[in-house]
Amino acid sequence: MSDHRDAPAPVRPQPPFEPPYHVVVFTSVRTEDDEGYAETAVRMRDLVKEIPGYLGHESARTPGGLGITVSYFRDAEAIKAWRSVGEHRGAQKQGRAEWYEEYTVHVGEVVRSHGWKRD
Known about the structure:
By secondary structure, the chain is of the alpha+beta class. Helices cover 29% and strands 31% of the residues. Strand 2 and strand 3 form a beta hairpin. Helix 1 (37-48) packs antiparallel against helix 3 (86-99). The protein starts with 20 loop residues before the first strand and ends in a 9-residue tail after the last strand. Keywords: Monooxygenase, Oxidoreductase. Residues 20-93 form the ABM domain.
């Protein structure tokens, strides 16, 4: 991974949320063809914010190409609502056809959460 001190914007983790809440961990390796990917990713980031119960997300990509996005939702119903958005389903279909070599999705419930920050 690149050194976070070189990042153009401050790098900050999501704050801890009050449990219980849910996470969706999307781990992927992309193809060489990324035409339209960036625009679609921005659109999905904007669209998911409209889902009641969406709390936030974090993403990282290694130099070797492994991408991880962790999305936080208040409950399973919010995840179900996001999965059912037609535009999101279209982006998933396009991702399988064009942008991803492979991916995995892990969904879980968080029962404990805490954070720490240097003064």
